[in-house]
Amino acid sequence: MIFLDYAVYLAISMSKLILFSVYTDTDFSFSLFILNLASVLVLSSWTLLLKARTRRWILLSLLFLHSTLIVSDIWYYRYFEDLLSIILIADVPQMSSVGGGFLTLVAWKDLVFFADLLFFSSAFLYFRNKTGTPPRSSRTKFAGTLLGIGLIIFTAPLAWSFLQKEEWLVDNPISNMREYYELGFWGYHGADLLRGASSLVSHNELSSNQVDLLTETIPEIKAASIPEDLPNVIVVQLESFQSSVIDQTINGQELTPNLNKLKDETMYFPNFYHQTHEGRTSDAEFVTLTSLQPVKSGSVYTQYEEHDFDGLPAHLQDYGYDTAAMHAFERSFWNRDKIYQNIGFDRFYSKEDFSENKKIGLALNDKDFLSQSLSYTSELNRPFFAFMVALTSHTPYEFPEEHKKLDLSGYEDDLVKGYYHTIHYVDEAVGQMKNEMEENGLWEDSLVIFYGDHDSGLSKRGTELAKDAGADNIVALFELDHGVPLFIKPPGTKAGEINENVGGQIDIASTILDILDIEPPFMLGDSLLDEHDNMSVFRDGSFRFDDFYYKPDLTEPIGSGTCYSTQTYMKVAFENCEEKIDEASEQLRVSDLIIHENALEKIRHEQ
Question: Which residues form the Sulfatase N-terminal domain (predicted)?
Answer without folding.
Answer: 231-518
